[in-house]
Amino acid sequence: MTSHNNYNKIAGQSTERVIAISDGVFGVAMTLLVLEIRVPLMEGFVSEKDLMHAFQQLMPKFLVYFLSFMTAGIFWVGHSAQYRHIESSDRNLTWINLGFLLAVSMLPFSTAFLGDYVNHKFPIFVYWFNIFLLGSMLYINWNYASKHNFISEETKAQVDAPIRKRIVIAQTLYFLSALLCFVNTYASIVATIVIQLNYAFGIWSGKKQK
């Protein structure tokens, strides 16, 4: 029992390894996204018009790919911002981070599902649920690190409230954009992209987002 408790105290203390595996999972997930856009197979004589038509048919998949690349990028930046301030870790925080990475690894599937059935509402909510898991785990990650003093008091005074507020507001906006699918599924996708562009570049915030 004593050795088990000692193991729990020493396991998962390296934030460097957490950052390393996180960057790796994000890199693989972002690469897999584009593999869902396959070159159309065309037999026999192929004219320029046929090729342009086939390429045009891929536009919904390109739109969803851009959506998901932005999603991955937003959450990679958010995760990086947190670990800029998280100074240490423990076993529980490491597993919370792995739960976050589980949601990251689901992105290629939810992207493929949405890309294949872009005119349906259910895939929109599957994709939104993926975003909800990402946001929830990122919030839990920060909350745990803050409560267990893995962040300095000075840092918490400066960034704790803005980080929490950013996640909550973003998740609310993502949910509202998902509801737009009852009007039009493409409107829902475009609204989500607009939200992401704002968080990426601070278009309407008056200053750059960090």
Distance between the termini: 44 Å
State the shape.
elongated
Radius of gyration: 20 Å
Mean pLDDT: 90
Quickly count the domains.
1
User: What's the count of strands?
Assistant: 0
Specify the biggest β-sheet.
none
Which secondary-structure class do the elements indicate?
mainly alpha
Please report which band the strand proportion falls in: under 5%, 5-15%, 15-25%, 25-35%, 35-45% or over 45%.
Answer: under 5%
Oligomeric form? single chain
Order of helices and strands: HHHHHHHHH
Count of helical regions: 9
The proportion of residues forming helix, as a percent range, comes to over 70%
* Residue windows where pLDDT falls under 50 for at least 5 positions: 206-210
Overview of the molecule:
- This protein is mostly helical and 210 residues long.
- It has one domain.
- 77% of the residues lie in helices and 0% in strands.
- The protein contains nine helices and no strands.
- The relative contact order is 0.12.
- The C terminus is likely disordered.
SSE arrangement:
Elements: H1 2-10, H2 15-34, H3 48-56, H4 59-85, H5 91-105, H6 107-116, H7 121-147, H8 153-179, H9 185-201
Q: Keyphrases for this structure?
A:
mainly alpha; 9 helices; 0% strand; 210 residues; single chain
Concise synopsis of the structure shown:
The chain has 210 residues and is an all-alpha fold. The protein is built from 9 helices and no strands. Helix 5 packs antiparallel against helix 7 and helix 8 (153-179) runs antiparallel to helix 9.
